[in-house]
Design a protein that fits this description.
Length: 108
């Protein structure tokens, strides 16, 4: 079962806002799938889904963008929890949703 939270999406410069306060679902990824992402740690790699972004702009989300949880504080950094998009996000236009894989960013 996944967890739901509100997030902001930031471009790879970690400053430019792409989307604000979108409701996203996050589910843990299986270890065998994490291996496909260049040795990603399955404990910190997740599937993300949302229906709160328009699917008309297929380049709205990009690899290396950040998903920033608006409520959860990372105990290591003391800042809001941040996830780095590592897959090529894709819009499912018929489902009016987006899906991507992201890695929990650890560090400063």
């Amino acid at each position: 079962m996944g967890e739901w939270f509100y997030a902001n999406i930031l471009k790879s410069d970690a400053v430019t806002l792409v989307a604000k306060n979108i409701y996203v679902q996050m589910e843990p990824i299986e270890a065998k799938e994490a291996v496909e992402y260049q040795g990603g740690d399955p404990h910190f790699t997740f599937h993300f889904y949302t229906r709160m972004l328009p699917t008309s702009n297929l380049t709205l989300l990009q690899q290396k963008y950040y998903v920033v949880d608006q409520q959860t504080i990372d105990p290591t950094t003391g800042h809001l929890m941040k996830y780095l998009i590592i897959s090529d996000p894709h819009a499912k236009t018929l489902m009016m949703s987006w899906e991507w894989i992201a890695y929990r960013y650890r560090g400063s």
